[in-house]
Amino acid sequence: MNRNIETPICDLGFSDKQEAVQPEALKLASRTRRRSSAASTCSFSSACFTASSDEDTVISPREKKQRNTKGFTDFCVKNVLSQHGFGRREIEIAEQEMPGIMTLRKRAREDKPLRNANIVCCTHINAQTAVMVEGLIELGASVRWASCNIYSTQNAVAAALAEAGIPVFAWRGETEEDFWWCLDKCINAPGWAPNMILDDGGDATHLMWKKYPEIFKGIKGIVEESLTGVHRLYHMSKNGKLTVPAINVNDSVTKMKFDNFYCVQDSILDSLKRSTDIMFGGKQVVVCGYGDVGKGCAKSLKAQGCIVYVTEIDPICALQASMDGHRVVTLNEVIRNVDIVVTATGNKNIVTREHMNRMKNGCIVCNMGHSNSEIDVNSLHTPELTWERVRSQVDHIIWPDGRMIILLAEGRLVNMSCSTIPSFVVSITASTQALALIELYNAIPGRYKNDVYLLPKKMDEYVASLHLPTFDAHLTELTDEQAKYLGLNKSGPFKPNYYRY
Ligand SMILES: NC(=O)c1ccc[n+]([C@@H]2O[C@H](COP(=O)([O-])OP(=O)(O)OC[C@H]3O[C@@H](n4cnc5c(N)ncnc54)[C@H](O)[C@@H]3O)[C@@H](O)[C@H]2O)c1
């Protein structure tokens, strides 16, 4: 019996998404002005960001009966028939820039290492992740796929996947309730017995564990991509609740040192530009958190001529920031003067209402961390503040004295919500995820206990090597004498697990 079957999905209590806790009275009281012009739907040029028709915005995809051109109906996306062609082109463009995952697909196509794997996927749904998931299917897997974020789905891509016969449940701008409904569809479906989870943020794992314990028993392995999801897995493991092995992809070198840094370095500029048309030179920016994500943001903003301040709790990261030429401050010290606030801590309540009350007129506030808890957006839903939607994912929050701040993506991951992301970097992460799935799915019994593991170092090195030909990079081979001197195998691994890169 499923113990929690009666619990409304959105009430399970493990969501870090804020609408769920916003009091109804406040929602009503908060004065919201929505401009009805085209600008309120979208202003981006990419096919994946194109504005929806009026009908689309009024009718929820859940209320529409859709079938693809072959009569397939096991999906729920914004609009399959009008958008799938655009989406397919987006996926094809991404394939050009994703050499690692494409090589993996080609090499393992015959062996089908994921034959009979039934994977519940809960990741962002965009052109790049589509290349990965179509790869998993090519390697033998079946998938059911929901988005891990209500704003990041590229509708055209989701349509292309549905047209290809993939059960996909996601659209950009889902409600909180839709989010859990979509995820539920991926876990609990007639004739579907999931045996693997590919997660980004831990929601699929937690929903299945909490609401469908019987189904959870059939899981052979979990692959988790995000820092937030990894924290949840370690927490489960510590409390003896993790009953399957899991691979922490976030801390794989080929994920963390590339996705968290290089992806962010490109996309922080892209998302700020697309949403606000800001010129960076001379702007004062505070980046909260100086881990890999904070470092990526700070580096590229500084390169554009911004004056960058950093906040940190950790003296090691604070020292790195100082020696990289940034001023380490507390948020209180600079909050009145900065033009842009970027959170990247993976923590909660970094930017409070108190801070926002003191920001200068026009200050841009955005979050690069996984969950939407870094900026206290709930606290902005009070009667005296006016919310004005000026563009898709861009809100002006106006104080009674006329001062306003510009909030991007309602405090959710700004790069996933307001821009596209570099395909090449996603190829690295996607290859790591695919190898982690193959490793857990094919592991001989007993190799992995019910705990959280890192991907074996040799696989990390393999993922990196898949991407070197793009740069015509030529590796130096160890001589026998050198290998002996360093105590290494000539084919790797080349570093101990504790090496930090
Ligand atoms: N936007 C993206 O594309 C993207 C990519 C990868 C990861 N992420 C997310 O970004 C977040 C950060 O990832 P990371 O890899 O940099 O993590 P990290 O742990 O390396 O860095 C976070 C830093 O924040 C600091 N911190 C924590 N609480 C703080 C506070 N109250 N004030 C100031 N600093 C504080 C920590 O000391 C740490 O150095 C995570 O939520 C992660 O899931 C986003």
Automatic annotation (TrEMBL):
One GO process term, biological-process aspect: one-carbon metabolic process
Species assigned in the record: Musca domestica (House fly)
Enzyme class: hydrolase
One Gene Ontology CC term in the entry: cytosol
Keyword Hydrolase: yes
Key words, A-Z: Hydrolase, NAD, One-carbon metabolism
Name of the featured protein: Adenosylhomocysteinase
CDD domains: SAHH (cd00401)
Cofactor note: Binds 1 NAD(+) per subunit.
Binding site for NAD(+): G291, D292, V293, G294, K295, G296, E312, N415
Membership in a protein family: Belongs to the adenosylhomocysteinase family.
